[in-house]
């Protein structure tokens, strides 16, 4: 009854305003977006409880932990979405929305992939089928956006994605889709091997990967920089990578003698490093598609849905990998079949993550196009630092014990700080 009353209230709020006379997808009305955010939060709460996401104590403590996990990202979204309608506050509002979307996605993805209880008796936790899970997210995205487009055709404000008129446009979309599939698929795969903080430390090195990709794409840019600023940027990069390496050593040393071996940590690090270079290519291509093809973030997210899903199906059905501790290696398809048999609610939680992922992709590409790829990575580093703090505060993970905990904390601060300074130097150009 409580859930029904919440949904009725949400639908009443969503129906109240008329949509503005402009293309759907350029700017959603404020109340509709807030209503959708609240609806997703309600569904998240319901599906999460059905999936038995673990808590350290009874139901009241589980609800309090859920509140701690989502309150900061949700507050940022609730502040940023209305403020985006004010021209003087548009950039700060975009940063707030990006913070809420990215931080919430990181915490939610870690819960789904690593923490949701599949079987208490067998000790199975999480959904270690990252490639197929990401493919399902992209199919969900394609269906959601396609349905919205079709529905809009029956209204006075029809929306049609910008058509791809040239074969070269199709090739660009396919390359963009491949970069996205490698970025998100490998990043989600690394969650099986790495703590969230370790993943975020490595992902904070995205500026150096972005710089490498941008230089390869536009070699003339490096020659246009002054020698002093170029040296400062290199120093920041080296310091950031050194701190990331130190944090990796601290985490692997702390895992000695535990269930998760240091070899597992190193596998996760390698996978995550590959994903950040794919992510850098994805960001640079998003900027290029916006300028050369005049695609907005909605069109890009829609067009890459099916191609990236099809690409991710190949490793989902063919690549066998470690699943749960004490269980044999499985493909992603076998993992999902087992989860469907033991705990269908966890799959529901994974599909709900796809809805959030669709909104996040639009937000990220809108940031890249309206600002720059460098500015977006700068904002992302702040988001990652905050996500680490939240994950530690809510008990999603813990620092290593003893001296390695202090080493990892200092290395994390040094890593994020170094790449933040690097991004600030980039923004001064």
Automatic annotation (TrEMBL):
* Gene Ontology cellular component list: membrane
Which UniProt keywords are given for this protein, alphabetically ordered?
Membrane, Transmembrane, Transmembrane helix
Q: What kind of membrane protein is this, topologically?
A: Multi-pass membrane protein
Does NADP show up as a keyword for this record?
Answer: no
Q: Which InterPro entries match?
A: TPT_transporter
Query: Where is it localised?
Result: Membrane
Q: Which residues cross the membrane?
A: 95-118, 130-153, 173-194, 200-222, 234-253, 265-289, 301-322, 342-363, 375-396, 402-425
* Presence of keyword Transmembrane: yes
> What is the name of the protein in this document?
Sugar phosphate transporter domain-containing protein
């Amino acid at each position: 009854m409580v859930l029904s009353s919440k949904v009725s209230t949400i639908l009443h709020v969503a129906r109240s305003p008329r949509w503005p006379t402009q293309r759907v997808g350029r700017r959603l009305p404020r109340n509709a977006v807030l209503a959708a955010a609240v609806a997703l939060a309600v569904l998240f709460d319901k599906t999460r409880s059905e999936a038995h996401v673990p808590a350290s104590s009874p139901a009241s403590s589980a609800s309090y932990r859920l509140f701690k996990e989502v309150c900061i990202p949700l507050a940022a979204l609730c502040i940023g979405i209305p403020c985006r309608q004010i021209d003087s506050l548009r950039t700060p509002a975009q940063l707030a929305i990006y913070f809420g979307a990215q931080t919430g996605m990181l915490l939610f993805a870690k819960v789904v992939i690593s923490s949701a209880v599949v079987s208490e008796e067998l000790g199975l936790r999480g959904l270690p089928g990252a490639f197929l899970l990401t493919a399902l997210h992209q199919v969900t995205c394609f269906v959601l956006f396609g349905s919205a487009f079709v529905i809009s055709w029956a209204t006075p404000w029809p929306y049609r994605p910008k058509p791809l008129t040239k074969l070269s446009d199709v090739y660009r979309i396919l390359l963009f889709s491949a970069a996205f599939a490698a970025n998100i698929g490998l990043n989600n795969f690394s969650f099986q091997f790495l703590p969230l903080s370790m993943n975020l430390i490595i992902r904070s090195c995205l500026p150096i990967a972005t710089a490498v990709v941008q230089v390869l794409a536009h070699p003339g840019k490096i020659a246009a920089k002054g020698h002093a600023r170029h040296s400062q940027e290199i120093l920041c990069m080296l310091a950031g990578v050194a701190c990331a390496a130190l944090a990796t050593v601290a985490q692997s040393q702390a895992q000695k003698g535990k269930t998760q071996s240091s070899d597992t940590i190193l596998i996760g690090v390698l996978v995550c490093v590959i994903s950040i270079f794919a992510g850098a290519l994805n960001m640079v291509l998003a900027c290029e598609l916006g300028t050369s093809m005049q695609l907005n973030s909605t069109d890009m997210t829609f067009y890459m849905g099916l191609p990236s899903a099809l690409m991710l199906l190949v490793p989902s059905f063919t690549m066998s990998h470690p699943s749960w501790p004490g269980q044999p290696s499985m493909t992603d398809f076998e993992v999902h079949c087992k989860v469907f048999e033991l705990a269908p609610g966890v799959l529901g939680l994974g599909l709900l993550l796809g809805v959030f992922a669709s909104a996040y992709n639009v937000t990220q590409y809108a940031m890249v196009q309206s600002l720059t790829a460098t500015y977006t990575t700068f904002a992302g580093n702040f988001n990652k630092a905050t996500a680490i703090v939240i994950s530690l505060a809510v008990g999603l993970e813990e620092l290593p014990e003893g001296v390695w905990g202090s080493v990892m904390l200092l290395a994390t601060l040094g890593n994020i700080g170094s790449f933040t300074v690097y991004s600030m130097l980039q923004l001064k150009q």
